[in-house]
Every structure is written in C-alpha cells, then in structure tokens.
UniProtKB/TrEMBL annotation:
Keywords: Kinase, Membrane, Phosphoprotein, Transferase, Transmembrane, Transmembrane helix, Two-component regulatory system. Its EC number is 2.7.13.3. PANTHER family: SENSOR HISTIDINE KINASE YPDA (PTHR34220). This is histidine kinase.
Amino acid sequence: MNKSDKKRNISISGIFIAMVMTIVIISTIAAMLIFVQIYKNAMEQSAVTSGTQISGQVLNTVENYTNEMQNVMQQIVLHMRKGSLEDLAFIQNMVEIRSDIVAVTTYDKDGNLLDCWNNGQELKRKSADHAVYTDDGSDDGRLNISKPHVESLFVEYYPWVVTLYQKISAPDGADIQVNMDIRFSDIANYIDNVGIGQHGYVYIADLDGNLIYHPQQQLIYSELKKEKGTHLKEGTHKESDAIYTVHNLSNCDWKIVGVCFVDEMITAKVKNAVKILLIMLCGILVAVFLLGLAFSELFSAPVKKLAHAMRGFEKNTENFVFIPVRGTTEITTLSSSFAHLVVRIQKLMEQVRQEEISLRKTELKALQAQINPHFLYNTLDAIAWMCEDGRNEEAEEMVNALARLFRISISKGHELIPIAKEVEHAKSYLKIENFRYKNQFIYSFDVEERCLLYYCNKITLQPIIENAIYHGVNQMVDEGEIQIRIFMDQQDIVFQIEDNGIGMTEEQCSEILHQEASDRVGIGIKNVNDRIQIYFGENYGLFIKSEPDEGTCVTIRIPKIEEDTDYGQK
C-alpha cells in the first residue's frame, strides 16, 4: 500500500461517530422543542386518560369478580332451598373447591347460627352479633354485600372477608339468611398494585361515600390523610391538584375511584405532536439519506464486493482467485486478511486431500493384511495328514487349491480384481474347507456370465463363506448347503451367499456386522463392509437377513466397475 492509498482510506469508526452525533443532536433538539411546546396542553389530558383507563380496568376486574361471586351465591341458594343431602353436599364441595370462599352460614331471624360450611376450621361459637344484615327483600339483581371485616366465627382463624347475604325461605318454610364470606385479600392486593402515575392510586367506596377499601386507609383512619373524592358521583372531576375518575359498579352499591395528581403527570401525549414530528422527521430523514449515500460509497459498496467474493469462494473454493477490494482502512485490512485466508484454506484442502488418499491406501492395506493363521495351519495340517495316509491325489488337489487361493489373494497388490477371479478364489476356498470338514456341506454357484468381466474388491466372498461355514452349517446335524449367486441389478452387481444353517437373531447379525476381525473369525464381515464403503461410499456394502433355525442370506451390493474406470487398480 502506497502513501496515496493511505490518504484516501477513511476510518469507518470516524464516519459512523460523526453521522450518529449529527443525527442525535438534530433529533434531541427537535424533540426538546416539541415536548416543551406541547407539555402544558398535554399534561391534563394525559392525566384524565390514564385515570379513566386504569380505573376502568379496575372496575372491570372487580365487577367480573363480584359477578362470579354472585353466580356462586345463586347456586348455593338454589341448592339450599331444595335442602336434600346431595344439595347440602354440593355446598360443602363448593366451599372446599373455591379457596376464596371462607365459609357459608345460615341464620334465623334472631341472628342465631343454624349451619356452617367451611374448610375444616373449628367454630368458636354458635352465633355472631353482626351476622344478620338489612335486606329489603327486593330482587333487582344487585348484590347485597357488606364492608370488609374480620371473620370471627372460628378458633384462631381470623381472615379478612366481605359477606354476600340473602334472605330466603328454608324447605321447612322458615325465613333464614344465607351468608357467604369471601376472602377480601385478593381484591385488596389487586387494588394495592394498581397505580396511576408515580403517586396516583385507586380505591373502593360505596354510593353513600363510605370507604370500602383504600390502599392508604391506615393513614386515613389515623387522620394523617383525608380523602376528598368519596362523595363524588360517576364521571371525571377536575380539582386544583388532582383529577378524580369515578365508575359505579352495575351489580352492587360500590364505586371505583381513581386519583391522579396533575403535578406529577409530566409524560406528554405524543399524538398531539405527531404532525410536527413528521415534518421534522422528514428533514432528519433527508439528512440521514444524504449521509447514507456518502457512507455507502465509502463502506457499503466495498463490503458488497467483499461479500460477493466470499460467496464465490464458498461455491468454488479450489479454483477461486481473489481480487483485492479497496476502500476504507478497515475494508482494506479485511480484504488482505481474506486473501491470506483463501490461500491458506486452499493449501490446507490440498494437504487434507493428499492425507485422505494416503489414509485410504493405508486402511486398505491394513484390511487386506488380515489373514487367518488358523486357516493356514489347519489346511497345511490336513495336507500333511493326507500325505501320511497315502491320499496323495487329494493332498495334491488341496495344495493346488491353496496355491490358487493365495495367488488370487495377492493379485499383484491390486485391490480390485475381476469377479471371475473372485469366484475362482471362493471355489478354491470352498474346496479346501470341504476337505477339512469332510464333506459336511455341499455348495453351488449361480453366476451370470455378464458379471464376470466387472471388477470387485478382492477377498469379498471368502469371509462371508467362512462365516456361513463356521456359524451356520458346521453346527448342524444334517448336511449343510451354501448357495452363491451373482447377478446384475440395474447399475449394480449383487452377491448373495445363502446357507441353510442354524441362523441368527437380529442382535447377532448386528454384532457380526460390527465386530472387529480376529484370528478365529479371519478377515471378518466388518472388514468386507469397510473396504467396500471406503471404495464406493456408504450407499454400498453388506446386508444380513437371518432367522433362527431357517438359515442366513448375506447380500453384497457394489457398483458395476470396469477395468478402465476411475477406481483403477490402485
């Protein structure tokens, strides 16, 4: 990089900081001017809207809860009027299911306690002086509900409740009053958590102006605070220091009063400033757009070129040629680093490719080198035994078969041999094994002639046949039979080795397919499967199908390989 290039490079961080500072300064000044102008006009409206919305939400919540309690009370009264055992059991179940119902009680006209349904608390006395409430007997659908009070019916249990009450005629014709004590803490906790602004609040009063619940009622009862809005009617009332929003409940003589203080509602309504903000925002956007164009020329265009180069490198890593991208200092640095990265990755890919080729050759040689010493020892021992017994012709035939077996096994170091050679190798092996096992089994070959000219991995059939003899027919009382079939299946060559031996379970098939080679098992089925998949991929290989006492069929699938294919004779 020469000196002129260094002068043309501009720091991205410098451009970004300058642009952000310009936008922030303009936006801040504009916002301050707007909010200062609209603050005085929006403050009162904000307070009214907040108070109306929040107190309306409280109204809906309290009204829904009291409506639900009214429905419960109607169900209890309905069952109490019937008076059957099932109806009385329903009342007890309702008390046990609803955790907010403390007790359901009935009183006679003199206030004497008749019955009490509760959740297992012990009654302290049979009557309560405050148990009977005034009920004019009208059926206008509104709740008869008391002020919050401490329940005093039970021993060492004093919950804070409100009482729903109703006078009815008992099944025996007597006039009684039904009380349902409801835990008031749920409503109280909800009211305590509601706020309008930082210091505003919501409270409940009755239509006569008496407090039902106030979040600051301790201060009110101790006369440290006075509440001015208890006698206000439904609607919004603006005072000098506060705004009161009053909502009457439709189902009882309660009202919800929301209180918010004008001097703390400093949050301005944005709606009144939208038009002014839009005009100023357009100016800011124009400025940002112009700055963005300049920024794009200095940063975005080089970044796009670099990103395009990276995508090209992903698609064609081996043959990719990178042309350095010029731009800001950071872009130039990234371009140089990417160029070095491309060169290193291409070198590493070539190195890995060569190592994979070497590793595959090493694995193939290791797999090919596993020859069963027991097989060689037992075969030579059998030949020696035949010579001593004077069976020279059979010994000579066995020696010739062993020679052919090892000649084909060596195959001049080639991994792939013609299928005809592989079949000859299998026949030589079967002849030797038939001598050793004294004709305990018979075998047959069914090979399509057109398959013989194609190539396969050497020593493919012999391990499978060995497994069929050792694990299958050798353990049979009757004569065993091994059938070898080779045929074409579209673009593949299929080998099938089937025996009528004792068969295997699915677990045994999996174990044989995955166990490593050993002296006793010879080259091993896993060896055959590994060599095929190393050469031709995981779509090819070995598959075992077996049933106990029915026999085993091993299928080997390889592609059709000709002598002059890319697999060659490595």
